[in-house]
């Protein structure tokens, strides 16, 4: 009889734990995914791959935390980071909206990476940047009600802008709280809109208006390039895309190594910082790559923190990535 009273509470506890494990909470969790090869995911017209080695991309699993993970942090996967909902979905942005933004960013990164790689190989790539297209306006932000999805920003405080970097620099000359005057191409006409600014939640001192933008440009590629990563979204695979395109067209970018890379690419070849470097570095390590190429600055600092012996190459541009891979003291 005594055994019955011992077993029942244990069963109840197990059921309760199981329920807590499956019930989602409000926060999000980033967990590592293994780095994966781009071979067979990048198809280039007239491909003649050069040399030994491979180019890998890295991704991060993003999902809601469970109630159990919130109550008992040791149940979280190794190398994970919990992100408050407000940081990932600011000002009422839905998960569906975020997923759509990531899909659009992925499509843009494919085109930009193709243009950067082909131009570096000497191809005649016609690129005409035309401004920053708004793909989302944050609810409750200064831009809410003043700017619209589909608007293309072509000027800041009277100065013409064509690239995302120029937009960021233009707004960045203000202080949080200051208004900024934006020239916008909307429905075939040009209008001027004055918008307030607020401080970026993760970057103190940086003013923002509350929009997500992508590069608006006319890009004419002389070679057909197809890239398919399935459900993976976001812009952070731009650098590995460009490296793989070059490899497929005969440039020895890996020099016999398995090269993992991450970084958003701008049209001028600048490598921009991305998120999730802790998880991406762990994912690269787990796939036994030979070297990890990352954006310089904070991204490189974070990667080295979790590298545990994995060589990390910090780069500011696509051309610098090619040069450093060619001279890296890595034995493969």
Distance between the termini: 66 Å
The outline comes out as: globular
Count of DSSP-assigned helices: 9
Specify Rg, calculated over alpha carbons. 23 Å
| Second CATH tier, the architecture of the largest domain | 2-Layer Sandwich
Record field, number of beta strands: 20
Structural class: alpha+beta
Task: Indicate the proportion of strand residues.
Answer: 25-35%
Biggest sheet, in brief? 6 strands, antiparallel
Helical fraction equals 25-40%
Q: Which series of helices and strands comes N to C? A: HEEEEEHEHHEEEHEEEEEEHEEEHEHEH
CATH class of the largest domain: Alpha Beta
Q: Give the overall pLDDT as a whole number.
A: 87
How many separate structural domains?
2
Unreliable runs: 10-17
What do we call the CATH topology of the largest domain?
Answer: Ribosomal Protein S5, domain 2
Write structural notes for this entry:
The chain has 332 residues and is of the alpha+beta class. It folds into two domains: 32-85 and 95-122 and 223-327, Ribosomal Protein S5, domain 2 (2-Layer Sandwich); 126-218, Pdz3 Domain (Roll), CATH 2.30.42.10. The chain contains nine helices and 20 strands. It has helices spanning 2-22, 67-71, 85-88, 95-120, 164-172, 238-248, 277-286, 298-307, 318-327, and strands at 24-32, 36-37, 42-44, 54-57, 60-66, 81-83, 126-137, 152-156, 159-160, 180-186, 189-195, 198-199, 207-208, 211-220, 225-227, 258-261, 264-265, 271-272, 291-295, 312-315. The strands form six sheets. Strands 7, 8, 9, 10, 11 and 14 form a six-stranded antiparallel sheet that branches. A five-stranded mixed sheet has the order 2-4-16-19-20, sandwiched between helices. The protein has a three-stranded antiparallel sheet with strand order 5-1-6. α4 (95-120) runs parallel beside α6 (238-248) and α7 crosses α8. The longest helix has 26 residues, at 95-120. The radius of gyration is 23 Å and the shape is globular. It starts with a helix and ends in a 5-residue tail after the last helix. Residues 10-17 have low confidence and may be disordered.
């Amino acid at each position: 009889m005594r055994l019955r009273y011992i077993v029942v509470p244990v069963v109840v506890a197990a059921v309760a734990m199981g329920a807590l494990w499956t019930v989602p909470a409000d926060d999000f969790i980033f967990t590592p995914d293994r780095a994966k090869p781009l071979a067979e995911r990048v198809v280039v017209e007239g491909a003649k791959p050069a040399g030994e080695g491979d180019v890998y991309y890295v991704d991060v699993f993003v999902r809601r935390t469970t109630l159990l993970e919130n109550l008992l942090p040791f149940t979280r996967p190794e190398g994970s980071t919990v992100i408050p909902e407000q940081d990932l979905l600011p000002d009422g942005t839905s998960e569906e909206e975020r997923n759509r933004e990531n899909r659009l960013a992925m499509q843009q990164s494919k085109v930009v990476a193709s243009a950067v790689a082909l131009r570096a190989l000497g191809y005649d790539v016609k690129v005409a940047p035309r401004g920053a297209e708004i793909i989302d306006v944050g609810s409750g932000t200064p831009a809410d009600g003043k700017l619209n999805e589909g608007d293309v920003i072509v000027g800041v405080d009277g100065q013409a802008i064509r690239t995302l970097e120029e937009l960021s620099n233009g707004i960045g000359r203000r202080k949080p709280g200051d208004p900024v005057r934006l020239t916008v191409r909307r429905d075939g006409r040009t209008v001027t809109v004055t918008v307030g600014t607020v401080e970026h939640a993760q970057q103190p001192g940086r003013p923002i208006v509350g929009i997500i933008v992508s590069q608006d440009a006319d890009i004419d590629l002389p070679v057909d390039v197809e890239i398919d990563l399935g459900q993976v979204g976001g812009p952070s695979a731009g650098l590995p895309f460009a490296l793989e395109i070059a490899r497929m067209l005969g440039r020895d970018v890996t020099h016999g190594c398995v090269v993992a890379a991450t970084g958003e690419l701008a049209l001028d070849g600048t490598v921009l910082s991305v998120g999730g470097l802790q998880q991406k570095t762990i994912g690269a390590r787990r796939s036994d790559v030979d070297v990890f190429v990352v954006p310089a600055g904070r991204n490189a600092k974070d990667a080295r923190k979790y590298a545990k012996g994995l060589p990390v190459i910090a780069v500011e541009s696509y051309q610098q990535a090619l040069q450093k891979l060619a001279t890296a003291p890595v034995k493969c």
